[in-house]
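anyone else get weird line breaks when pasting these?? whatever heres mine. first is seq + tokens for prot A
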Amino acid sequence: MDMFALVAAFGGGAFGALLGALPAFIMTGCFALAGALVAAGGGADIGVGFMAFGSFMGPHVAFAGGVAAAAYAGSRGKLKAGNDIVTALNGLGEADVICVGGLFGVIGFVICNLLLMTPLGPITDAVAMTVAISGCIARLAFGKTGLTGKYTGKEPRVWVTGGKGFTYNLMLGAVVGIAVSFVAASMMKAGVPAAALGVFPVVCFGFSAISLIFAQTGFAIPATHHITLPSGLGALAGMAAWGPCGAILGVLIGILSSLCGDFAANAFNSYNDSHIDPPAVTIFIMTIVVNLIRLAVVQ
């Protein structure tokens, strides 16, 4: 474990709290998109490895730090809602809130590195899994609603959106999956080098993360990074086994990712007082699914 990176994680988590969790994640997207494009062209892996998924803007550090700091601030009455991931906590002017962000940046760094040492390390997205675990820790430490929220309604709780919402989620996953997967197929057919094609899912992830700037400013756009990243990985796995036509696997993964995200939102991020990130839950689960399929079909 890199001790310099560990120390940096405190700063990254605190910086995530200063910016707010969602703004920090949008910055993650900027580094991921730019860094992946540079890496695709043969450049040094600075933007992705050290910035977007490292100790500065890594979601397990900066976003998780912002989430935990908001939960803490909410529990102390310093923030109206502990599940607020939009507000820049710098505006509170509270040093203890920012320190909590830094502490959870360190916690996220340690958890991620430990996960990479386990059998899950090679087959899941350790960063996303860490974001989910960190959110659970923050909920248990600062929240009062439990991991699945405190539902007080009279009707049965909804775990998977049905009816029109279910159809919409199917469509969302399908159209995002089609866009990602068949662009990947087109790139393969055009002879794009394998190394460049390999970072394409990160490019798509970065684009999706940056698009959340519109959500930050009040527009009702969907979060799609939990669809674009697994869909891209699925497309690459399918194409490795069956050529460009294997991109259809990415579409199927996109649909499953959309439905998984809906379940995670209903299960962990409803009727709550802190944020457990549904896209992070989806990404680590669907990455496992994709890698198990890849191990089964790719010789």
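and prot B, same format (seq, then tokens)
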Amino acid sequence: MREAESTINTEQQILEVAEELFLSKGFAMTTTTEIARRVGCNQALVHYYFRTKYNLFEKLFEKKFTILTSAISSEPQRNSGLKEKIEAITNKHMDVIIANPKLPFLIINELTTNPARFENIVSKLREQSLIILGELEKDIETEIKKGTIREISAFDLLLNILSLNIFMFLAKPLLLGVRNLNPDEFDSFVQKRRQEIIKTIWGGICIK
């Protein structure tokens, strides 16, 4: 039992350290040697558990993506209307970014430097994405028939939400300078932006 617990703890430690390094240094600058040194094990053990650095990176991204998809397709949400879903998706996605502020930079960097590597990961997660888009599409069609919103695809709607949320974190250095905000004030600004983003998204599709 103790040996099994030790194995799980070591594997978890490797994942946690790899996540920290990938988010701070990116894929290319992170090495299994440094991961092993930070964990306090030898490099062979890292390869024993995960075989390659890419496998570690893939597990990190799958973990973050699963957290997001699980949050925005939760059971209570499935029974709510489109407006409530927009609010929930915006808030849940924002929560994930706040908890992982370096994740958008990592994704953009990897998409730019090695799109093929990211495509392999995304292809495995496509099924989860299609489920979320399918649920949104049904709600959109219902609202269009009721005459409450204009025509828009589920993909465009979701992309609008994610883009507005992510931009604040990508532009954080600029926003801190332009608005003369300190880190605490920026956190407050982010919380206020939640409602503005929700109003912008709903207002952009709502037929007045």
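btw re prot B: DSSP finds eleven helices and no strands in the chain. Residues 4 and 10 are 10 Å apart (CA to CA).
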